[in-house]
Specification:
Elements lengths: L1 H8 L9 H22 L1 H8 L4 H4 L1 H23 L2 H17 L1 H7 L2 H28 L6 H9 L2 H16 L8 H6 L2 H35 L4 H8 L1
Helix pairs in contact: 2-8, 2-10, 2-12, 5-6, 5-8, 6-8, 6-12, 7-8, 7-12, 8-9, 10-12
Amino acid sequence: MEGKAKSVDNISVVPKKYRIHFIMLISCFVLWGLLNNMTDNLVPAFGKIFMLEAADASLTQVAFYGSYAVLALPAAILIKKYSYRHGVLVGLGLYIIGAIGYIPAAMLQNFNLFLASVFVLAGGLSILETTCNPYVISLGDEETSVRRLNLAQAFNPLGSLTGIILAKYLILGNLNSATYEERIAMSPEALSAIRSNELLWVCVPYVGLVIIAIVIWCFFKKNKDSEKILQQNFT
């Protein structure tokens, strides 16, 4: 037993040839933890910006978590048919498309376009979550797979905390102090100017993170060397 324990301890949790892959996957864990917590704060933000009832503003969460429910199973089918790498590429691609969709939604000040963008963005996160956990497990020996997954998941709360901070200071912190009654009394031009600034700050964190997502996407697009091994581990 002692000899077996020692042999397991001597096995690298993440083999050197997969360490860059592992770091990139950790970035995905941080990304979806961040966005999950940041998106919850869009409900009060959109409620104030678009002067919506609570039930209408909560459609943001319906779009977000509804996308998770709809796309989780197709994501599993995708990575089974192709590979983990393809799952990451599709997940990041949908996030990038959804986040960029915030820009025309903000320019047009259209809540429904935001909902569509949130749905696409969340679909990307759903695919990432479905893909990244088994991807991390496959990056090395079976004996260290649990330790490897625990290490990667330890970064998820970091993303969650960052999302709360970004939402508080970038989104909620830049909402105009005007009340519902004051907004009703404003001219269309004045109200549009306030909304434009508020929606700009809604876009900033989501669109800003697109740069990181593109870097990760390009890495997995370029690196195909381990794909056959990972597919064999999955099957």
